[in-house]
Amino acid sequence: MTELRYVYAVTRPFDGVLPEGVRGLGGEPPRLLRHGDLVAVVGAVPAEDFAEAPLKKRLEDLDWLTATARAHEAVIGAMTTVTCTVPLRLATVCVDDSGVRRLLDAGRDRFATTLERLEGRVEWGVKVYADPQPDPAASRPGPAGAAEPSAAPRERPAAPASGRDYLRRRLSSRQAREGVWERAEALSRTLHAELSQRAQAAALHRPQDSRLSEARGQNVLNAAYLVPRESSQEFVAEVGRLTPQDQGVRVELTGPWAPYSFAGQAGQAGPDEAGTSR
User: Fold this and answer.
1) How many other CB atoms sit within 10 Å of the CB of residue 19?
2) Percentage of the chain surpassing pLDDT 90?
3) Which helix (H) or strand (E) holds 237?
4) In this predicted structure, what is the pLDDT of residue 230?
């Protein structure tokens, strides 16, 4: 079986070894490939999955993509505990070690600049969700004896006394949902403004689709912040201080991560580096 080289990240030479127990794709531990003043974190992967043509099909398989992304992130997360790394894009693949060396040569200046900028820094993610309560007035009572859709019994709301009462309930419910959205948006603006001042860089990402993330509510803010590692405790405390007790608005803090959002182009493989030969 032909094997290719999967490149997880780029770092500088460092004292020490890979974290014990770290496993990448296929359950295999990655290895370090040194080339000049840079080191690539690589692993062997089968060409039948990662060559250009099969990779395009694989990337449409959500289960395969999820498992690959988790293995990719596990290696980068482990590396972050021992040294500063530039994470590469998912499915950055070279034909062999020579191809990895050419990748390092092509991006040498960008990798070096990015490593210097990211040294000693981590990424924290902050998301804000508008999570209004379900609308009990939106559904009229079903037929007598009909089973509830949920396994847990819930008290059925009283039937509206009239059509006007039904419309009044709907209007009240809609206004409540709109109020949640307004509060979520206001909180998002405040959080981003305040946290940006406490971070060395900030990035706004597109809100996540709840159908894919399976998170409750609608994502309003999806932001990342580059923070010195030694300032992380203060940053987390500031997020807590700015988070209100609001049942309809939820704040989610994640991290610390490798600084994916701030790797810039140095962390992005070009079109000929993903699933192709070098």
Assistant:
1) 14
2) 56
3) helix 232-242
4) 94
For residue 91, the one-letter residue type is A
Q: Residue 144: pLDDT above 50?
A: no
Distant-in-sequence contacts of 182-185, Cβ < 8 A, 24+ apart: 183/130, 183/246, 183/248, 183/249, 184/128, 184/129, 184/130, 184/220, 184/221, 184/248, 184/249, 185/130, 185/220
> What is the C-alpha to C-alpha distance for residues 58 and 24, in angstroms, rounded to an integer?
17
Please compute the mean of the pLDDT values over residues 197-221 and round it to a whole number. 84
Tell me, yes or no, if the pTM score tops 0.85.
no
As given in the structure block, the two tokens for residue 137 are: 């007035």
User: How do the residues of the chain divide into helix, strand and coil, expressed in percent and rounded to 5?
Assistant: 45, 25, 35
* 33 exposure class (CB count in 10 Å sphere: 0-12, 13-18, 19+): middle
* Residue with tokens 């037929």, as numbered in its chain: 143
Pairing status of strand 3-11 against strand 85-87: antiparallel
CB atoms inside a 10 Å sphere around CB 40: 25
Task: Inform me whether the pLDDT recorded for 139 exceeds 60.
Answer: no
